Amino acid sequence: MKELTKAEEEVMQYVWKLKKAKVADIIEHMSSPKPAYNTVSTIIRILEQKGFVGYQKQGRGHVYFPKVAQAQYKDESMKKLINNYFEGSFSSMVSFFMKKNDLRLSDLEQIMKDLNKNKD
């Protein structure tokens, strides 16, 4: 899976949220200051080239939709983060975040309970 720039990922977040959207719809949901139409249109075309979005013609325009699920992108991003920064060790990543974010043991226990619920 190709990597997204910060701007591409921001636009992609709106595509995932809206499920189907024209460029104008995406811009409408963005916070101020809103980017120019041409900027978002260019980013959408790049996302299309990278295989993240598809489109359907609608009148003179296009309606865009995600071709890559948000969960799939999250999974790939997390794998890359763990491999690149924590030598593939999930426990090293958790340890890092516990130290940096002052997580309590009770927080970790709650995370483990949540994980165990999702296994069933």
Automatic annotation (TrEMBL):
MF-aspect GO terms: DNA binding
GO biological process: negative regulation of DNA-templated transcription
One Pfam family recorded for the sequence: Penicillinase_R
Keywords for the protein's UniProt record, in alphabetical order: DNA-binding, Transcription, Transcription regulation
Top-rank taxon: Bacteria
Family from the record: Belongs to the BlaI transcriptional regulatory family.
Protein name: Transcriptional regulator
Organism: Psychroflexus salis
